[in-house]
TrEMBL record, chain A:
Recorded superkingdom: Bacteria
PROSITE patterns associated with the record: ABC_TM1
Alphabetized UniProt keyword annotations: Cell membrane, Membrane, Transmembrane, Transmembrane helix, Transport
PANTHER family for the chain: D,D-DIPEPTIDE TRANSPORT SYSTEM PERMEASE PROTEIN DDPC-RELATED, OLIGOPEPTIDE TRANSPORT SYSTEM PERMEASE PROTEIN APPC
InterPro entries per record: BP-dependent_transpt_permease, MetI-like, MetI-like_sf
Sequence ranges assigned to domain ABC transmembrane type-1 in this UniProt record: 153-340
One family name in Pfam for this protein: BPD_transp_1
Family that this chain belongs to: Belongs to the binding-protein-dependent transport system permease family.
Protein name: ABC transporter permease
Main location: membrane
From TrEMBL, chain B:
Highest taxon listed in the record's lineage: Bacteria
Domain ABC transporter positions: 9-263, 330-581
Taxonomic classification: Bacteria, Pseudomonadati, Bacteroidota, Cytophagia, Cytophagales
CDD domains noted in UniProt: ABC_NikE_OppD_transporters
Name used for this protein in its record: ABC transporter ATP-binding protein
Coiled-coil intervals: none
InterPro entries documented for this protein: AAA+_ATPase (IPR003593), ABC_transp_ATP-bind (IPR050319), ABC_transporter-like_ATP-bd (IPR003439), ABC_transporter-like_CS (IPR017871), Oligopep_ABC_C (IPR013563), P-loop_NTPase (IPR027417)
Amino acid sequence: MIWQRLKRARQQQWTFKLAAVYLLVLLVCMLFAPFLSAGFHPNFLDLSQTYQAPFFFQAHWLGTDQLGRDVWANLLYGCRTAFLVAVPVMLLALVAGTGLGMAAAWFGNKLLHFRRAAAVSLGLWLFAVWFYGFYRADFSSELDQNAAGLLRVGWLAVLSAVAIVLNRLLKTLPFLAKKVPLPLDELLLKTMEVLASVPRLILVLSFAALLSPGIGNVVLLLLLTYWIGPARLARAETLKMKQLPYIEAAQASGLPVWRILSRHVLPNAAAPLVTAFCFGLSGLLGLEATLSFLGIGLPPETPSLGRMLAGARLNTDAWWLVLFPALLLCLTILAIQTIGQAFRKALEVEK
Amino acid sequence: MSIKPLLSVRNLETQFRSQHGFVKAVNNISFDLMAGETVAIVGESGSGKSVTSLSLMQLINDPPGKITGGSAVLQSKKFGEVDLLKLPEKQMEKLRGSEISMIFQEPMTSLNPVYTCGRQVMEVLQLHENLSRKEAEARTLALFQQVKLPRPEKMLKAYPHEISGGQKQRVMIAMAMACEPSVLIADEPTTALDVTVQAHILELLNELRERKGTSILFITHDLGVVAEIADRVMVMYKGNIVEQGNVLDIFTNPQHPYTKALLACRPKIITFQPVLPTVSDFMEVLPTGEIVEKPFVKDDSLPGVVNNYIDTMAELKRKQLMQQSTKPLVKVDDLRVHFPIKKNFFGKVKEYVRAVDGVDFEIFPGETVGLVGESGCGKTTLGRTLLRLVEPTSGRIIFNDIDIAGLSQEALRKSRKNFQMVFQDPYASLNPMLTVGETIMEPMKVHNILKNGKERCEKVNELLETVGLTAAHFDRYPHEFSGGQRQRISIARALALSPKCIICDESVSALDVSVQAQVLNLLNKLKREMGITYLFITHDLSVAKYMSDRIFVMNQGRIIESGTPEQIFNQPQNDYTRDLIAAIPKGDVADIRKAQERRKGL
């Protein structure tokens, strides 16, 4: 049904067609960047040719920046970086946020139960992992990487085993063995409120200071703030749907919870979630550029649109250092939004 | 000398733009409304009755709607003789609310929740009559007294959520009557209300009309209500007026087959019919749109008599069987459901709503138990608690010697196949993202009924045919079906697990009478063929009487009276039951005469 409707959208709207073609071309360009960059590496410095203005019949046909790096090559690789950050962050955020949001809305504060013993052991385990894994992580600095990795996995296994044994022991105590309701919804809401109360950029800036620069860490960092959007949306949609007779009918037919959530709730929440995904993706492309512009998060040798924009600060005459990356960002975000709209329409149910 | 009609509508035509071109919602209709007269427009959903009224008010949204022809001449106090359809917006604004006003169906949403009731009525007065605040307040108070709102001074300052549905409708009427309009359009004003409240509102409208000489255009789907209030009736079908005339004439001597069908397919309180007639028994719509009357065979033919006889025998046999089996299928023991509404500082609950407050009853296999009561009496909560969609506060629900109220979540899930539910709203009870086939098949898959997908598919097709659909509907999505068809799909889904008991929660309340008759017939057929036990929850006493072997009357969380339909209707023991029965508009000739005399008396 969805594919048929998308097909209809493709036939009807030229904007959809244009956006799809644009994104496809962009994808091909990013995949084959090494072949398309006219022999220039994005980090190849040519100090004899700094601030070359763009001209079509020359080697650097889109010009160069303050260190003589080729703009075209940087655009291609920069775009790659932006997507390498934005897509995994948004995908993971969507999966984690949707799962948490739906679970919180469905189970509320009363349906799930846990033993106090389990909470105590889990808390101790988390503390230990944090203490040895992050706070006192320097004990393995003298070893080489493989050995350090192994040691960490070993530690994790030992700590987990201790926690499990501890749980077994604590369960024998009457106070700790008691089952209490898990306020899942409350927990999730409060966590989201705390995270949302700190401005996103400040949160990212302060955490970035603690972590070593690299795409992996940036992805983790951004994930920390980006799962909130989909979680809120999924929670609201699930709460709304929980009241509807078809969900009650599914319950009355004896469907297991996961099946109700995946077959009945999720497809009906898909339209707003896709919209959130597209908005998030657009925001993340911009945020990656912002972070690189400020020189945070990603190592300086990573090609990025933000890094190029930063180059324009040193020479305000170099309009090409602003125009091309900005244009690329704008067009890409516009295309993503257009595609998102078409998807939303295809997923929405006719009334 | 003939008196000029107050409102004279000629050849009104309203179209709506859709994907497949223009659709005529109202097709060339003409009627007159005399001063001080009540004219009722009767029709089912999609007949164009609401569009007619909105067209007169020029409240049709363009696009998609457009008034494409006709005239509606009003003898206006301000402007003299004017055509409502051609009046410029500025002048129309002056007419709306002052000379023509409207009452809507849903009192819950037609008042603005952020203003007090008094303010909303005062606003109309200040706008149209240039009154000062003080004067407007005094007038509003007088109006509230006229519409018989209790404690009118308090009502001035009350917000809409603080008062009941019937009171809200009274506020709406006060607002509509504020400037003493010459025409009052009432669009299903009592449909969302309980029968006892409905009776009061109808009485109020009658009284106001007599006192102020207002003409009322009363739009409804309920012929019973028409009998109570109208002088003349117009029956609409697919945008056309198929018949119009005096109330008594329409009820005693209907000419058009559609009118005959409408009158016949409502379950009667007095007579008993084994099968309800439906519209298709009376007429046939040719592909050209022409309506042809079918000779209605009233079981006089031989097969009719034989079928009737077989039905009656099956019915008797079933009843006998029911009495023999002494062991109840379901036994409910002191069931209570309380919802917390107020908590103190420490989170301890201080106040409860006692939705179900100590209910005991038994349901025997093969019988239909009707659970009737007005909104808020706890009947829906009771039904949902039996399925444990709502957790009971205390009490036992014993089914097959197992206490359902005490089952763990997993055991409950497994036991769910014994009970199924058919919901009220046919538009929300099917998942819009699943095909009909998937919807019906899913419960079987989960409970591992039948061996494989192929067998289940066959079973689904079989079920679809049982409920009067075809196997071709398997791959369609719910939005392609009408309300009645969707309710059939819901029934097929409930049947998929071969349950012992089906709870019907207002399952036919949202359907048109003719469709309602079809669904009721289907439910009865299933009962005869499969021996299903029903708990039939409804606010409609005539439907309950038609369907049930026993009726429970519920009020304020308790079952206050129970017995066979004959007992309940002929010798009601409880005052509440008596009020309930008296309030039903029956649509008898005697009642119409009485209503007319009452109006003359005013």
